[in-house]
Structures are given as structure tokens and as C-alpha cells.
Amino acid sequence: MPEGKTIGQLMEEMRQKAGAQNYHGHDYMDLERFAEDTRHMIIFDVLTNDSPVGWKGERTRLFLTEAGYQKSLENQEKGHIKILSHAKVRNGELFYDHKEQIR
Predict the structure, then answer these.
(1) Residue ranges of the DUF5720 domain (predicted)?
(2) What are the boundaries of each domain within the chain?
(3) pLDDT tens, 5-56?
(4) For labelling alongside 69, which of 18, 61, 85, 95 has CA 20 to 30 A away?
């Protein structure tokens, strides 16, 4: 293993080499992903300047609790964001709703 790099950093480098996108918000291996109460991961576009998260035009990834996910759904209903990808999270493992979702 290259000196001074964590497994998470090496995994992130490999993802990027394979063409994975970098988003605003949480990194792919963010500690929030492994938090005990994290249940969802979403990737979304910010559609308005009034959005409570992010800036208009940004694509963002967040790892969320159940309550945070419900707020995101409310913000989508209000037109502030558009959720593009969703995965359930269990013990840091991602279970995407559909195979073809962006990652």
C-alpha cells in the first residue's frame, strides 16, 4: 500500500480513475456513510437559490438519517432539488434502488 494513504483514499482514487464523478457534499467514503443512524444516500441537483442545501446548479451527494431523507423529499416536492439517485444504507453498504442510477 502506498505510504500515507488510507484504504478509503485509495478506493476513492480507483473510483475516479474508473470514471466516477466527484460531487459537492459528502465524499463517497465519508464517515457519515458509516454512522449508526445513516439510512439513505442521495445524489441530487439543486434547482433554486432558495434551496436549504447547496447552491443552484450544484450536484450534491449526502448520507442521511431517516429524518434527513424525509426533509429531502419535502424539498423535492417544493421544487428546490431533484433527486437523481437513491440508495439505502446499511452498515456503510449501499443498496441502490435501480442499477442504472448515477453513482
Answers:
(1) 5-101
(2) 22-96
(3) 887 778 777 777 776 777 899 988 889 999 999 999 999 999 999 999 889 9
(4) 18
Residue 43 near residue 61, CB atoms below 8 Å: yes
46, three cell numbers: 439543486
Q: 85 - beta bridge partners?
A: 43
In contact, 41 and 47? CB cutoff 8 Å: no
**And the C-alpha cell for 83?**
433527486
Largest CA distance in the chain: 47
Question: What CA–CA distance (Å, rounded) separates 49 from 27?
Answer: 23
3-state SS string over the chain? CCCCCCHHHHHHHHHHHCCCCCCEECCCCCHHHHCCCCCEEEEEEECCCCCCCCCCCCEEEEEECHHHHHHHHHHHHCCCEEEEEEEEEECCEEEECCCCCCC
